[in-house]
TrEMBL record:
Response regulatory domain ranges (all copies): 2-116
Entry-linked InterPro entries: CheY-like_superfamily, OmpR/PhoB-type_DNA-bd, Sig_transdc_resp-reg_receiver, WalR-like, WH-like_DNA-bd_sf
The protein, known as: Response regulator transcription factor
Location of the DNA-binding region in this protein: 124-224
Domain of life (superkingdom): Bacteria
Domain called OmpR/PhoB-type: residue spans: 124-224
Length: 225
């Protein structure tokens, strides 16, 4: 799962990024309004942590831009300004949650996981598809009640496919979502082929009743019989 941290305080931003990375999130960051707008315009995220007061602009303007672009990212406002007006304006513009500074990192992580589950996983932490069970927060996969070992990226790919089951996933969108915006520097998608090949083999070898189908020249689709 991919998170964008928009926060101008260097120390706080670095602490948040480090904390979320320890929870196996792919994390990107922006320190000012211009960088934040560039990120949300060019890329997609599972959750955006958004400070209101930013150098060069206002976080609510970023939120308004997301709304105009009709993007569906989960947004949690994090701000030292704990006024009712800020909270109401943010929620009216489409924010999913509001957390006032100072806050505990454990609470922030819990809020991030909660909004992602609500929108991407229908509020569920444990998802069952036929004989396959995935524990989202614990990053565990079971097939026929037996644990299946997955590498970090393999789990991220499977979770992304499950959140978008029966939908065609473009290779570029998958790469950017799992590996981040630095994927622009890659020459090809060979690393994706390798990861998906390994994941498909593990699903087949364990008898999983779901299949990742390749759509030639376009991408992949998770099929659930």
């Amino acid at each position: 799962m991919k998170v964008l941290v928009i926060e101008d305080e260097d120390e706080l931003r670095n602490v948040i990024v480090s904390s979320l990375e320890k929870e196996n999130f792919l994390v990107e960051s922006a320190a000012d309004y211009t960088a934040a707008l560039d990120k949300v315009t060019g890329y997609q995220y599972d959750c955006i942590l958004l400070d209101i007061m930013l150098p060069g602009g206002n976080g609510l303007s970023v939120l308004n831009a997301l709304k105009k672009m009709k993007k569906q990212e989960n947004v949690i406002i994090i701000s030292a300004k704990n006024s009712v007006d800020d909270k109401v304006n943010g929620l009216n513009l489409g924010a999913d949650d509001y957390l006032a500074k100072p806050f505990h990192l454990s609470e922030l992580t819990a809020r991030v996981k909660s909004v992602i589950r609500r929108k991407s996983m229908n509020g569920q932490n444990v998802i069952e598809l036929n004989n396959v069970k995935i524990h989202v927060d614990d990053r565990l996969l079971y097939v026929n009640s037996e644990p299946v070992s997955l590498h970090r990226k393999e789990f991220d790919i499977l979770a992304y496919f499950i959140a978008n089951k029966n939908r065609l996933i473009n290779k570029a969108a998958l790469a950017e979502h799992i590996w981040g915006d630095h994927i622009d520097q890659a020459d090809d998608f060979e690393f994706i082929y390798s990861q998906i090949k390994n994941l498909r083999k593990k699903l087949k070898d364990t008898g999983a009743q779901l299949e990742i189908q390749a759509v030639y020249g376009v991408g992949y689709k998770l099929i659930v019989p």
